Amino acid sequence: MSTLVRNWNRLSLVKRILIGIIIGIILALSVPNAKGIAIFGSLFVTALKSVAPVLVLLLVMSAISKHKKGHQTNMKAVIVLYGISTFLAGLTAVIASFIFPVSLSLVKGVKDLTPPEGIVQVLKTLLFQIIDNPVNALMNANYIGILAWAILLGIALRSAHDHTKNMLANFSDAVSHIVKWVINLAPLGIMGLVFDSITTNGLASLLDYGKLLLVLIGCMLCIALVVNPLIVYLNTRRNPYRLVFTCLKESGITAFFTRSSAANIPINMRLCEKLGLDKDTYSVSIPLGATINMAGAAVTISVLTLAAVHTFGIKVDFGTALILSVLSAVAAAGASGVAGGSLLLIPLACSLFGIPNDIAIQVVGVGFIIGVLQDSFETALNSSSDVLFTATAEYAKKRKEGKEVMVHV
């Protein structure tokens, strides 16, 4: 038994996760009534979600409190890359929706949804999240609020005694160690998630929306494999695909099955450490990316909105389409502050074309039907690109300084 455990631990995490996926599929097809298997997935996601807020608070506080004058971080560059990627994702989705127009068979019965009334409400929600009570922010995993408090406390602690800073760093390291224990359970957790997904949702219900799914997933793959690599190349002047595939493999796979950018924060932190990135930068950029780097959400908003537009035969000029790209990018950045995520921002985009709210809510219903795959691909794109652009900003800085750029994988 001990030999089996040692051999298992020698395998890379990605290989262990792939084994978990295969076992999950086999169990779902052979013993679909064994519902107890799904609890492993729920426990894994809950464990990640519970440890992530504390990890973010302590890491950001420690990094900022120990920040030395003259040591430059790459946060400005990272935020610019986040914004460019999200806008280009919305634009790509708009272009794809015109080339491959999709019409919807609208559904009814979507209840208890309260979409934002406008972009002002989205921004207002974000502002109130920033000034949230710190205890409440931790309890509800409000990462905007957690980041705000962590940054303020980190700045205030810069003048603290070294013993205080070291104690904070020790707590940060301890939580990071707990995170490693949780991540080692990923194969078991993802086995449960795969089992639950197949036995609960199946794939038959998605066939009626095959064309819509193809456009959505096609756009997200285009962003992940064409647009983002181009952004990386323009900044680093190096072949981007080694870094791109590393991020997709080690971050995207887990994000695909957890379907939560917040739950994937510890995974991304560990990957940044593995890549040898500056901790002062990634301790802030990764949790920030989980809230504002939403290329996948921009794709979802644009594609489903234009599907509704095509369904009603509404003519759209280039200028309006460009405005939709900007609106979807801005709205996507606020998706984390709205209950229901990117789908509930669709009525906001639909209002741009005069589509009434009761019809737009039916489009949201379609989104929930295809959410099994749509949300998985969206989260995988969003979360993996957090690491991608954090690394890109650092490699670009090294290139400008004349240093050799090495991708540590």
TrEMBL record:
Annotated membrane topology: Multi-pass membrane protein
Location in the cell: Cell membrane; Membrane
InterPro entries: Na-dicarboxylate_symporter (IPR001991), Na:dicarbo_symporter_sf (IPR036458), Ser_Thr_transp_SstT (IPR023025)
Record carries keyword Transmembrane helix: yes
Superkingdom, natural source: Bacteria
Gene3D superfamilies: Sodium:dicarboxylate symporter
Reactions it catalyzes: L-threonine(in) + Na(+)(in) = L-threonine(out) + Na(+)(out); L-serine(in) + Na(+)(in) = L-serine(out) + Na(+)(out)
Record keyword Transmembrane helix present: yes
Keywords carried by this UniProt record: Amino-acid transport, Cell membrane, Membrane, Symport, Transmembrane, Transmembrane helix, Transport
Main location as per UniProt: membrane
Segments traversing the membrane: 12-31, 37-65, 77-100, 141-160, 181-200, 212-234, 284-309, 321-346
NCBIfam families: PRK13628.1
Role this protein plays: Involved in the import of serine and threonine into the cell, with the concomitant import of sodium (symport system).
Family recorded in the similarity comment: Belongs to the dicarboxylate/amino acid:cation symporter (DAACS) (TC 2.A.23) family.
Name of the molecule in the record: Serine/threonine transporter SstT
Organism encoding this protein: Paenibacillus oleatilyticus
